[in-house]
């Protein structure tokens, strides 16, 4: 119904390779999130799937059919943009129905689908308004509605929450999750925000410099990162990387310590240093400890903790949860 | 609102400067219009006096409308201006869309080439243009003027419009593509309405020089049938005798159509000029 396969997909602008060979299979009904730092090519990859950018080489298949040469409107996709991209001269109803009108669908079908989508997104009162008369959150709901009405095989989201304020972002995130559950359609979603990725995705695709670093469910990426990049990208605050020798590991180059797997104690730790900064968040406390040779190490403790900036503490590390990486940054997995 | 930036003194000073400028700019027009309603002697005796019951005379308008085919001149001017303006806006907007929207080899070079016309006056090429028109048999036709004016107006139009079009979000155009709109519909329905203020600006800056031009009508289309209003008014200026009443009346009449067109575009024009300044 809505599968997607990328086979050795590449994209270059002149001499610059932006996407350097991506292979990916997305199953029907999956919620896939592309995540990575800015400039990693995630938006370009999405726009290639949409048909808004040419593919330099490789094939893109939607629903088993190669779509490389098809224009966007014939690919069975719908897209939601970061800047909403609503047609300013049309009403909400006009915005939602334009695609179907262009496809020559009968009026009754269009009206019914718009009504269903409007109910789903609580936009019924706003159908006759123009985008300029709506708030940011409402505009993004209209943009989502415009995608829903098309009943696409594939939903594409290009950083849809980036222009919303923090509170609205959480609400809209929940709405998108609910929408996915309700429609059960395949969704490909691009974001640079790992919290969005972790909370929404069935599987996350971590991209870096045009290459897939790892594909997996949020918990797989968190518990079993394939390399230093993924380990550092997933999890907040970021994983600490220290010289492996400093924590007593001989067969690796770098040791990765998640802030939540370290606790502060007065003695008995492998590392020690002075507290340089504390962030009190209520539910958790983030403490940054300046260790001489290991550098700044972040520690995340749950609940409220009172420590003094400048006081000396030792770091007790949960040895079983240390990640080992070799000189190239690849993960060394311990054989069980 | 009497904040530090909006003190009464500053406001008065600003208005004084603006009013002074307006008076200076409008004064020649004012003199032309009042004198066009005066008898010949009164024009020279007291050129700055308003027409009164003694000096009021419509003789200028009578001569202007009787002698020569004044309505035809008017019509010629209107045809040339409106057709050139339409072509400049149409082709200018299309070229600007291509330059701002599509990546192709030599894009920026092409933009530079098309903008070159802003810096090089078209009149430098008069001789070549005349030879071209003679060769193609277009001398003494309105087509000759329309072609020249279209070429003259395009560089500025493309330059201004492509800058404006670059600022339109890509997402909007891409949304149109996903909804299956053709490139022409995206251009006409999504992009053009958003650059309307810029179009009005271009329209005014293109229209006024065309309407007022004397050079090309004199060289390319001096025949009775193709005279424009500016050229037509010149029949009253002789080497030895000049019929000032008629000249002033003709000029006053020539102001009207531009004024009407300007009023149509002005609301959009102001938005176009301030678009960059006020968000």
Write a structural description:
The complex is a heterodimer of chains A (336) and B (279). Chain A folds into two domains: 4-230, P-loop containing nucleotide triphosphate hydrolases (Rossmann fold, 3-Layer(aba) Sandwich), CATH 3.40.50.300; 237-332, Nucleic acid-binding proteins (OB fold (Dihydrolipoamide Acetyltransferase, E2P)). Helices cover 25% and strands 33% of the residues of chain A. Chain A is built from eight helices and 19 strands. In chain A, the strands form four sheets. Chain A has a six-stranded mixed β-sheet with strand order 6-7-8-3-9-10, with helices on both faces. A five-stranded antiparallel β-sheet of chain A has the order 13-17-14-15-16, with no helix packed on it. Chain B folds into two domains: 1-57, no CATH class; 60-274, MetI-like fold, CATH 1.10.3720.10. Helix content of chain B is 73%, strand content 0%. Chain B is built from 13 helices and no strands. Chain B is globular, with a radius of gyration of 23 Å.
Our measurement of the CA-to-CA distance between the termini of chain A, rounded to an integer number of angstroms, reads 40 Å
Biggest sheet record of chain A: 6 strands, mixed
Tell me what the CATH architecture of the largest domain in chain B is. Answer: Orthogonal Bundle
Q: How many separate domains of chain B?
A: 2
Look up the CATH topology of the largest domain in chain B: MetI-like fold
Please identify, by name, the CATH architecture of the largest domain in chain A.
Answer: 3-Layer(aba) Sandwich
**Rg over C-alpha atoms of chain B, rounded to the nearest angstrom:** 23 Å
Report the average pLDDT across residues of chain A.
Answer: 92
* Topology pattern of chain B, helix = H, strand = E: HHHHHHHHHHHHH
**How many beta strands in the DSSP annotation of chain B?**
0
Number of β-strand runs of chain A = 19
Largest interface: A-B, 25 and 15 residues
Q: In percent terms, what proportion of residues of chain B is strand? A: under 5%
Poorly predicted ranges of chain B: none
How far apart are the first and last residues' alpha carbons of chain B, in Å? 20 Å
């Amino acid at each position: 119904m809505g599968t997607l396969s990328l086979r050795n997909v590449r994209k270059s602008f002149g001499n610059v390779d932006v996407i350097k060979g991506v292979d990916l299979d997305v199953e029907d009904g999956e919620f896939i999130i592309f995540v990575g730092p800015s400039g990693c090519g995630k938006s370009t990859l999405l726009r290639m799937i949409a048909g808004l950018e040419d593919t330099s080489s490789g094939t893109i298949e939607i629903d088993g059919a190669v779509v490389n040469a098809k224009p966007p409107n014939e690919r069975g996709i719908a897209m939601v943009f970061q800047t909403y991209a609503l047609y300013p001269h049309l009403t909400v109803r006009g915005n939602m129905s334009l695609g179907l009108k262009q496809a020559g669908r009968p009026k009754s079908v269009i009206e019914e689908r718009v009504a269903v989508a409007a109910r789903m997104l609580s936009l019924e009162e706003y159908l006759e308004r123009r985008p300029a008369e709506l708030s940011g959150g409402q505009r993004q709901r209209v943009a989502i509605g415009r995608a829903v009405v098309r009943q696409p095989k594939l939903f594409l989201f290009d950083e849809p929450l980036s222009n919303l304020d923090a509170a609205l972002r959480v609400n809209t995130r929940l709405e998108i999750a609910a929408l996915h559950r309700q429609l059960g359609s395949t969704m490909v979603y691009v974001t640079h925000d790992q919290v969005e990725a972790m909370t929404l995705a069935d599987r996350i695709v971590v991209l870096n410099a045009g290459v897939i670093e790892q594909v997996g469910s949020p918990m797989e990426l968190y518990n079993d990162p394939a390399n230093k990049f993924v380990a550092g990208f997933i999890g907040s605050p970021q994983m600490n990387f220290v010289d492996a020798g400093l924590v007593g590991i001989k067969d690796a180059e770098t040791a990765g310590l998640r802030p939540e797997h370290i606790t502060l104690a007065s003695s008995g730790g492998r590392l020690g240093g002075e507290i340089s900064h504390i962030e009190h968040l209520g539910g958790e406390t983030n403490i940054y400890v300046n260790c001489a040779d290991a550098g700044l190490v972040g520690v995340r403790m749950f609940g409220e903790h009172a420590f003094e900036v400048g006081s000396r503490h030792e770091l007790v590390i949960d040895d079983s949860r240390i990640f080992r990486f070799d000189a190239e940054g690849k993960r060394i997995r311990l054989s069980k | 609102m009497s904040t530090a930036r909006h003190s009464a003194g500053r406001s008065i000073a600003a208005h004084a400067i603006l009013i002074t400028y307006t008076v200076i700019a409008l004064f020649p027009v004012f003199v032309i219009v009042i004198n066009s309603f005066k008898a010949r002697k009164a024009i020279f005796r007291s050129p700055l006096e308003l027409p009164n019951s003694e000096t009021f005379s419509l003789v200028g308008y009578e001569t202007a409308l009787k002698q020569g085919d004044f309505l035809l001149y008017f019509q010629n001017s209107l045809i040339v201006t409106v057709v050139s303006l339409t072509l400049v806006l149409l082709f200018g907007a299309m070229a600007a869309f291509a330059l701002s929207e599509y990546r192709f080899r030599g894009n920026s070079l092409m933009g530079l080439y098309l903008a070159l016309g802003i810096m090089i006056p078209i009149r430098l090429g008069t001789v070549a243009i005349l030879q071209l028109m003679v060769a193609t048999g277009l001398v003494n036709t309105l087509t000759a003027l329309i072609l020249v004016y279209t070429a003259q107006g395009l560089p500025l139009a493309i330059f201004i419009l492509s800058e404006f079009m670059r600022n339109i979000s890509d997402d909007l155009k891409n949304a149109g593509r996903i909804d299956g709109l053709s490139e022409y519909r995206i251009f006409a329905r999504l992009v053009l309405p958003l650059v309307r203020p810029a179009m009005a600006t271009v329209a005014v800056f293109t229209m006024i020089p065309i309407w007022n031009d004397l050079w090309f009508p004199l060289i390319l289309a001096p025949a009775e049938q193709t005279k424009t209003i500016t050229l037509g008014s010149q029949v009253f200026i002789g080497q030895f005798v000049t019929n000032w009443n008629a000249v002033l009346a003709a000029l006053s009449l020539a102001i009207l159509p531009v004024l009407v067109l300007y009023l149509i575009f002005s609301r959009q024009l102001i938005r176009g000029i301030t678009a960059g300044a006020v968000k």
